[in-house]
Write a structure and sequence with these properties.
Layout lengths: L5 H10 L8 E4 L3 H14 L3 E4 L2 H12 L18 E8 L5 E2 L1 E7 L2 E7 L4 E3 L3 E9 L10 E7 L3 E8 L4 E9 L2 E2 L5 E5 L2 E6 L5 E3 L2 E8 L5 E8 L4 E7 L4 E9 L4 E2 L2 E6 L2 E7 L4 E3 L2 E7 L6 E8 L4 E7 L2 E7 L13 E5 L6 E3 L5 E3 L2 E7 L9 E5 L4 E6 L4 E8 L12 E5 L7 E3 L5 E4 L1 E7 L9 E5 L4 E6 L3
Length: 476
């Protein structure tokens, strides 16, 4: 971003016999920038590598890190006494350097492309014409000049070219009068993007009227119009809407705090939605805050966002419900490690862990046990603010079912399984192992034989609490 041409500096060091080799890794460069940086490596005898990902960057650094230091007198890999070459350096009348590009012409025919800060190899000696000019940000050439050059001696012929300075544009981003890092800026004419450049970089452009757009964040999609003039620099001042980072946490009546999704609204519309722990960039102002949750939501809380790194602490008046299961493991089909709490006016249920107090808004709730662990009667409870309530779920008595196959029958293969289907809406179903007791809630079931062993007629059976029932399957 400075006026010094790094490639010309490399050339100057070579002429002063300063032995240094520069390796370059280009990260996110456009074609113009890549050309300039590759020239630095080439002129100093170094290597250039592109890196457009973290993996590529690591590989490039590893590769370049293995390169040996240059031997005395070996910084320039090119032997200047072999063949013909042309080196072009472009400046305007103030001495500012520019990257040039253009064509090499001989006897009216284009014989090659040439660029500045580069060793342009020439096939043979002779008289040539150059048409070169500064390379603009859109890749085109500005006001190319025609220069005659005679290449008669082997080695490098240096040619200094005086060019007209194009229009120059750069962008500055400020917030509350302070410079801040900006975003990439795109230049448009007639709704067509012509080029883009990074904040604080200088971009060369043709004179004319442009629309410049940048999008730093949701609140700062900005646009400016400017007339660019040849030989002059235009600074675009993007003044950012002030933004502050805000966090949020919910505090329940018992003192417990949680960080969850937050919605900030204005005029009934959600303006920001973010996780309270990670926070978000927010425009200062007044908002209505919602924090959706089935059991303990925060609704329509008035908040003011005014400073950076502000923590919004939202009190939610709650009681708490703790679910417990009675009895021992023998009273259940499996260990009851979950339950559900459902607001009386909702069709949704919240998963809860037994033994853990769950904050809930004051009101009526239905507490349900896990049907895969047994059968339970749901309980309706009322909770008040600040109240802690324990709900104990009592399992209904289980029955037992044993399935067996007729030992005197013949089968395609020995049957080692049968299948259970529910009849009364139970959640329990699955595989039965012959001869083993399967605990089941009381109710009606259908038992099916294994079709790989033969054809079996399904048997309907009623399991009673505290009773073990045996079912015998035989092939048709």
């Amino acid at each position: 971003t400075c006026d010094i041409d790094p490639c010309a500096l490399m050339e100057e060091w070579q002429e002063q016999n300063i032995k240094i080799r520069v390796h370059v890794v280009g990260v996110g460069l456009n074609d113009l920038e890549r050309e300039a940086m590759a020239c630095v490596a080439e002129t100093s005898g170094g290597l250039y590598r592109d890196a457009n990902s973290a993996e590529a960057l690591s590989q490039a650094l590893n590769t370049l890190g293995t390169q040996k230091a240059p031997e005395p007198g070996s910084a320039d890999p090119q032997d200047k006494e072999q063949g013909y070459a042309l080196r072009i350096y472009g400046t305007d009348d103030t001495g500012r350097s520019f990257i040039l590009k253009g064509e090499l012409i001989r006897e009216g025919k284009v014989v090659g492309e040439v660029r500045s800060n580069h060793r342009n190899v020439i096939e043979e000696a002779g008289d040539y014409t150059l048409m070169v000019g500064p390379v603009l940000a859109d890749g085109s050439i500005f006001e190319p000049v025609s220069i005659s050059v005679a290449i008669n001696e082997p080695g490098d012929t240096r040619l200094d070219v005086s060019v007209q300075r194009p229009a120059i544009v750069r962008a500055r981003f400020t917030q509350d009068g302070t410079s801040v890092p900006g975003a990439r800026v795109a230049a448009y004419q007639d709704d067509r993007q012509l080029f883009s450049f990074r904040a604080n970089d200088e971009a060369l452009a043709r004179p004319g009227h442009y629309v410049f757009k940048t999008n730093l964040n949701a609140e700062n999609a900005l646009q400016l119009e400017a007339d660019l003039q040849a030989g002059k620099q235009t600074v675009l001042d993007f003044v950012l809407q002030p933004m502050v980072r805000v966090f949020a946490q919910i505090t329940f009546s018992g003192g417990q705090t949680v960080e969850r999704m937050i919605e900030l609204k204005q005029d009934g519309k959600t303006v920001y939605r973010f996780n309270g722990k990670t926070g978000a960039l927010v425009r200062p102002g007044h908002y209505r805050l919602d924090s959706p949750d089935l059991l303990a939501p925060a609704r329509d809380v008035e908040v003011e966002v005014s400073r950076n790194n502000q923590m919004l602490n939202i009190p939610v008046p709650t009681g708490s419900i703790t679910v417990e299961y009675a009895g021992s493991d023998e009273d259940y089909l499996r260990r009851p490690d979950r339950a559900w709490i459902e607001p009386a006016d909702q069709d949704e249920s919240a998963f809860v862990t037994p033994g853990t107090p769950v904050p809930v808004l004051p009101g009526h709730y239905q507490v349900r046990g896990w049907e895969n662990a047994g059968a339970f009667d749901p309980q309706i409870v009322e909770i008040r603010q600040g109240e802690s309530l324990t709900v104990t779920l009592q399992p209904k008595p289980l029955g037992g079912l044993i399935v067996q196959y007729d030992a005197n029958a013949r089968y395609s293969i020995p049957p080692d399984r049968a299948f259970l289907q529910k009849q009364d809406g139970q959640k329990v179903k699955g595989i039965l192992r012959p001869g083993k007791i399967r605990k089941l809630p009381a109710g009606k079931y259908r038992v099916l034989g294994w079709n790989k062993a033969g054809n079996f007629t399904p048997i309907e059976v009623e399991v009673r609490a505290g009773v073990t029932t045996t079912v015998t399957l035989g092939p048709n």
